[in-house]
Amino acid sequence: MATDRITKLDRLKALLRGYGRLAVAFSGGVDSTFLLAAAVEALGERSVLALTAQAPNFPAAEDSFAARFCAERGVEQVLVPVKLLELDGFTDNSPERCYHCKTEILAKLGVAASDLGFTIIADGGNVDDLGDYRPGLRAVREAGVVSPLAEAGFSKAEVRDSLKEMGIENWDKPAAACLASRVPYGTSITGDILTRVEAAESYLAGLGFRGVRVRHHGDLARIEVPGDDRVRLFDPAVSGPVAAQLKELGYSFIAVDLQGYRTGSLNESIGK
Length: 272
Description:
By secondary structure, the chain is an alpha/beta fold. 46% of the residues lie in helices and 12% in strands. The strands form 2 sheets. It has a 4-stranded parallel sheet, with helices on both faces. Strand 2 (48-54), helix 3 and strand 3 (76-81) form a beta-alpha-beta unit. The mean pLDDT is 92.
């Protein structure tokens, strides 16, 4: 382990021990998995609670891993339903959507934590999350949620390296951002749209595409894949079945983004 990362890990564990007891907002993604594992090492499983929000904008594929991970470590996991499709600030899909979404989720997690005697909630935010356009960070601060990975100075790459050294299988799992991030601002979010996007991305992932995004533009699906995967996607033996499958899901037109996958590509339209 690199010396700098050892120092950060020591700093992280010191932070975690200082909380005494900790509820972790646990999605099953890379960051929250590392945070939960580190919290168990620092505090013991009985002093850690995993809170998993169940909402329509989170890919269902995360659920089975999250449940198994908690069971293997003896951590109590509480599933917290969040009805985002009843929240106008979410479905209206303004550039502040993430703020309203995160505020609602954290409020529900806060109630669940309090009911079980936990007063501190931590999320898996890291230093890389401090860039781009992320109104959800304001919601985190307002809710009093702590972000020990960011405070200890961990980047996404360092989180992955740490998980790999810990032998945790999801260390190289592609990021699975909120499904609503596939919908352009101003387009109302519905359960049908989220279901279609999730099914399209799941199909492409099943073909071996990693880090894939299907951006929803009404009747058009814009596919983003990283690097050389674009070449493979243009192979008629692949593009034909992909187009057929996405049309089955309700899209009339299927396009491949020539710029490839990039985080937060829909934020590029803000201010233009």
